[in-house]
Amino acid sequence: MSKVTINDLFDLKTIATPVYHPDGNQFLYVVNQINQTENNYYSNIYLYNCEKGETKEIIANQSLNTHPLWNRAGTAFLFLSNKTGKNQVYLYTFLTKTVKQLTEVSEGVQQVLWHTDDQHFFFGTKRTNNSVLKHEVKEHPNVFITESINYLENGKGLVSSDGQMSFA
Fold this sequence. Notes:
- This protein is mainly beta.
- Helices cover 4% and strands 40% of the residues.
- The mean pLDDT is 83.
């Protein structure tokens, strides 16, 4: 058996974030790997069918595609992708096999969570200037921006003075 070399690392793939479908018969997961030519990482999202034992690549491009999250009906999932430079929220719909970008936030999105109605979602972003975020979403009347909440689970509150947000 030969020793592991630095070049072997370029062939290494890691699996992360398995998320079961609401019916429990399949799950989404992320495969991370290194792109030696570009000198960076990229991540693709796969679907594994437990009954058939089949794997299908769903989201594949030369960017980081992470944090898949099923809707309650199991017909679509949200995920984060940095394919435009900063993480944004995207929606993949199984019926149409389409991907749609749902956010365009200059600071990028850090977290995403479905609302229980399967029509809306919550997201967290690092804010450096509230007026910039307000300008970015002004054409979307259903967007609600939380500017401050006095809950100190992390010692800073939901929205802290340093611009970090955290959700519980």
